[in-house]
Amino acid sequence: MSKSESGKSAGTDGNPTLRIAQQPEADELLARSPLAALVGMLLDQQVPMEWAFTGPYTLAERMGSDDLDAAAIAAYDPEAFTALFTTKPALHRYPGSMAQRVQQLCQYLVAEYDGDASAVWRDAESGEELLRRLNELPGFGTQKAQIFLALLGKQFGVRPPGWREAAGAYGEEGSRRSVADITGPESLAEVRAYKQEAKAAAKAAKAKKAVNKSQ
Q1: What's the rounded mean pLDDT across residues 69-74?
Q2: C-alpha radius of gyration, the chain, whole number
Q3: Using an 8 Å Cβ cutoff, are 42 and 105 in contact?
Q4: Distance CA 93, CA 199 (A)
Q5: Are 50 and 21 a contacting pair, CB within 8 Å?
Q6: Which of 21, 122, 174, 188 is the most buried (most CB within 10 A)?
Q7: How would DSSP label each residue in 67-128?
Q8: HSE value, Cβ hemisphere, 13 Å, CA-based, for 9
């Protein structure tokens, strides 16, 4: 995809060695396929991170390929494409809606970037510009865009000026906030613990606000 982050291990092909999906074949695809990485990020909601980022590999297998192709996905019959997601084991907790989102993402990439996912970040001149481009992708809100920007910077060596600032807290060095910080089972556990703590804190704050409002 790009040069690996300094200090990160890289394979003989120059791609970074990822341990996000916790499955070697799935991680290898994420490392060499920009579209697979984008699709994994898109799927990363309301399911375990490993499940989301294994999805691109499973999808490629079901499409009879060793990679994902934006043009092929964009042109796929919608019902047949949904079937690729819903076939057991399903690719997501909400396979129908996520199949639609993946197809919309690929249609956008074909229209705006000639089907080349890496073009989204290849010539971005600043972190702010890259964040804007990511935020324009179907299914990518600000938080998802910032997390993926942090992933690009921390593990793929894609670092336009100001990338850490544009990624917000997710860009902080040494953080354990998101998939951008997962380099193995230990860091995965740390990120999961952080997410659970943040969710509990948000729930407590919401409950406190409701109590105060009722008084």
Answers
A1: 98
A2: 18
A3: yes
A4: 19
A5: yes
A6: 21
A7: S--HHHHHHS-HHHHHHHHHSSSPSSSSHHHHHHHHHHHHHHHHHHHTT-TTHHHHT--SHH
A8: 7
Tokens of 6: 């300094």
Q: Which residues contact 37 (CB under 8 A, 6 or more apart)?
A: 1, 30, 56, 117, 148, 151, 156
CA angle 193-191-157, nearest 5°? 175
State which amino acid sits at residue 75: A
C-alpha–C-alpha distance, residues 69 and 18, integer Å = 21
User: CA 41, 192, 184, 174: dihedral to nearest 10 degrees?
Assistant: 90
Distance between CA atoms of 158 and 149, rounded to whole angstroms? 8
Closest CA to 49 of 152, 192, 199, 149: 192
- In three-state secondary structure terms, 8 is coil
Residue 116 exposed, middle or buried by CB count within 10 Å (0-12, 13-18, 19+): middle
Q: Which residues contact 81 (CB under 8 A, 6 or more apart)?
A: 73, 99, 102, 103
Tokens 């952080």 sit on residue: 194
Written as one letter, the residue type at 38 is: L
Please identify which residue in the block is written with the tokens 């990518």: 140
DSSP state of 21: S
- pLDDT of residue 21 exceeding 70, the answer is yes
Separation CA 66–CA 69 (nearest Å): 10
